[in-house]
Write a structure and sequence with these properties.
With 218 residues, the chain is an alpha/beta fold. Helices cover 35% and strands 19% of the residues. The structure holds D-xylitol-5-phosphate (DX5) and zinc ion (ZN).
């Protein structure tokens, strides 16, 4: 069964703690936390302080998605703030192996994200070191964007790469996932799907949205 990772970027930040409690009690498997620096992506979100403030609220894994230009500089701070999975973008790193090793040296799970225009084969040399691959199905920077349908093939190829190599890697998909396409995303091979707007601002209440997405994802 695929796991749901609600993205707090779409939560109401005036009562963030309450919104987090609601997704957790509705059955969220992980909490997706989007970190944006206004440099790697054209938007600024939150930093380690918010991650730390949320940590006492729940024990579900914190899935921290770093959309920042210089991840090595901030990884230790996100580790102390309570991150469980730390995902960096392949496009940011001239020394990806070093960055992944840094995450793993702190005994956290290491993920590698790739933008829609980045070919999948960029991750091949570091596959044995990864715990998670994150396929972006929108251009990162904002919640509520439209799912790029042509990325379904990339999800299928990533699934094949993981299965054929026998790697113990979770495949996560992020961006524009909703009630209409969640089944297709999971069918293509996602183990984890992120839901921002569809979870926090969807057709129903937060609880109804999570329940419906879980039912539809099978
Ligand atoms: C995009 C972020 C996503 C986004 C998901 O830059 O990485 O996690 O917030 O939100 P939706 O599901 O609304 O596209
Ligand atoms: Zn994200």
């Amino acid at each position: 069964m695929a796991k749901i990772a609600p993205s707090i970027l779409s939560a109401d930040f005036s009562h963030l703690g309450e919104d987090v409690k609601r997704v957790v009690s509705a059955g969220a498997d992980l909490l997706h936390i989007d970190i944006m620096d206004g440099s790697f992506v054209p938007n600024i979100s939150i930093g380690p302080l918010v991650v730390k403030s949320l940590r006492p609220i729940t024990e579900i894994p914190f899935d921290v998605h770093l959309m920042i230009s210089d991840p090595d500089k901030y990884i230790p701070e996100f580790v102390s703030a309570g991150a469980d999975i730390i995902t960096v973008h392949a496009e940011t790193g001239h020394h990806l192996h070093r960055t992944i090793s840094l995450i793993k040296s702190q005994e956290k799970q290491a993920g590698l994200a790739i933008n829609p225009a980045t070919p999948l084969n960029i991750i091949e040399p570091v596959l044995p070191d990864l715990n998670l691959i994150l396929i972006m199905t929108v251009n990162p920077g904002f919640g509520g964007q439209k799912f790029i349908t042509s990325m379904l093939d990339k999800i299928r190829s990533a699934r094949k790469l993981i299965n054929e190599g026998g790697f113990d890697i979770q495949l996560e998909v992020d961006g524009g996932i909703n009630r209409e396409n969640v089944a297709e995303v999971v069918e293509a091979g996602a183990d984890i799907y992120v839901a921002g707007n569809a979870a926090f601002k969807g057709e129903g209440t937060i609880e109804e949205n999570i329940k419906t997405l879980k039912e539809l994802s099978g």
